Amino acid sequence: MKLGYLTLPTPDTIANARRLGFDSIEASAGWFPQPTLDETERNLAAIRDALQTNNIAVTSVALYGNTTALPLDDVLDYFRRTMKLARNLGCGVVSAMTGRDNSLTIDENLPIFERYFTPIARMAEDEGLRIAFEPWAGRVVGHGPYHRMNMATTPELWDRLFETVPSPALGIEYDPSHLIWQGIDYLQAIRDYASRIYHVHAKDIVIDQAKLKRVGVHGAGWWRFVMPGLGVVDWPALFDALKEVGYTGDMAVEHEDDEYMGDRWNEGLTLALKTLRPLMGDE
Fold first, then answer.
1. How confident is the model over 114-144, as pLDDT tens digits?
2. Who's near 45: CB < 8 A, 6+ residues apart?
3. What DSSP string describes 201-248?
4. Is the pLDDT of residue 145 over 50?
5. Domain 3-280 is of which CATH architecture?
6. What are φ and ψ of residue 279, in 5° steps?
7. DSSP string, 131-152
8. Are the C-beta atoms of 54 and 87 separated by less than 8 Å?
9. How far apart are CA 17 and CA 56, in angstroms?
10. Is the pTM of the predicted complex or chain greater than 0.85?
11. 17-26, 36-45, 137-146: which is most confident
């Protein structure tokens, strides 16, 4: 298992990953409706040189956002370019979100998902790549106003998505933090969806139980993302579960800890590394 972090792929961020002690990055391709592919494509030669010089791998290329908010032809073009980028970076996984029309129910959204992701899954199969859905539920309960652009947020919905587009190319970018605040058993999810976990995000979460009891699950400020090791995730148990099910993929820290932004960015990543690296054994 390689350990990295999510970042824009540039020679500087790649060198930073090596300097901190990571062996990989998850390369961001930006967010719909305006992915940031152009600059990465222009600088591909320099990026590949930096990866080789620093001995850094790319474990996933992340194309996030409201996928189905754009016309299908535009989305297919973005995914085609992202898959080409993944191949050029030696990577077999593209991380994504399903998209969602908030004016429609889940039942009404599923045909839209089918229309978009049937050809996307076929493209991935043809290229020998896999699509891993990030389980981000949006800035919803406990974190401000309702705002969703993704349906791959719970085990129940994973089942419905995989039934709607039954392609082995579609799977999950497992992230315990998104499951915990929803009340989902994040360790059992590993066991139940072992064959569909194609990439892992390392992110922790703090739950303010006193505030939750006052504001309720629809209130704001009762949970926040933190660096691995600073929250409620049982990381030794999580690694044990991944080993138990035979997970052979990679892991990337998704840095969303507000306490470690700006000048403290690398400090936060170093904390994550100190928590996670010892649990990886000799991998």
1. 999 999 999 999 999 999 999 998 765 555 4
2. none
3. EE-EEEE-HHHHHHH-TTSBSSEEEE-TTSSS--HHHHHHHHHHTT--
4. no
5. Alpha-Beta Barrel (3.20)
6. -80, -10
7. EEE-----S-TBSSS-----S-
8. no
9. 8
10. yes
11. 17-26
| Cα 231 to Cα 147: distance, rounded to the nearest angstrom | 24
Residues 198-228 have pLDDT tens digits of 999 999 999 999 999 999 988 888 999 999 9
- In this structure, what token pair is assigned to residue 169? 């190319």
Kindly report the three-state secondary structure assignment for every residue of 34-71: EECHHHHHHCHHHHHHHHHHHCCEEEEEEEEECHHHCC
- Asked if residue 33 has a cis previous peptide bond (ω within 30° of 0), the answer is yes
Length of the chain: 283
- Name 197's bridge partners: 172
9-44 burial by CB neighbour count: b if 16+ within 10 A, else e?
bbeebbebbbeeebbbbbbbbbbbeebebeebeeee
Q: In the numeric block, which tokens belong to residue 174?
A: 């497992």
Beta-ladder partners of 35: 30
Q: Hey, what's the torsion of the CAs at 204, 209, 212, 214, to 10 degrees? A: -160
Q: By three-state DSSP, how is residue 198 classified?
A: strand
Q: Which amino acid is at 138?
A: G
